[in-house]
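re: ur question from yesterday

yeah so i grabbed the chain u mentioned. its 137 aa long if i counted rite. heres the sequnce exactly as i have it in my notes:
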Amino acid sequence: AEAKRGQQSLGLMLVDGDNLADYNQKFGYAAGNDMIFWLGQHVRSLAPSNSFVARWMCGDEFLVFTPGLGRDQCLELANYLRHNIHLESHELLIPITVSVGTATYPENGTTIEQLLEAIEAATKLAKESGRNRVCLF
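ran it thru and got these structure tokens back, copy pasting raw so excuse formatting
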């Protein structure tokens, strides 16, 4: 609503941890929960300070909404998150990767429902394309 009122762009991302099931199977659910907590902390710390970060539907999915980001900036931020999460994850039991789907308001939708559908579709494509990728809707 704020982006609509101010005619401001909005970058949206869905950051989805890759292979959580494998992590749980190999190290147990407690370690999997630790990994999800770690991922959430790192998404929050790597995102710009004006971003809104929230855990999404599945355990290892995080939404990132960042006001003022256009398409290219959103893609740049998504690649920054993907790259740095993998680099910093070496402190975990095994390094992890993330797949990230991106979309921007108003280019990819003018309602929250349209934008959520867009980032979910882009994330699905990133997963199906081999994981550890960023896909723009």
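noticed a couple things. Strands lie at 10-17, 52-55, 61-67, 98-105, 134-136. also The helical segments are 2-6, 20-27, 29-46, 71-88, 112-128.
anyway ttyl
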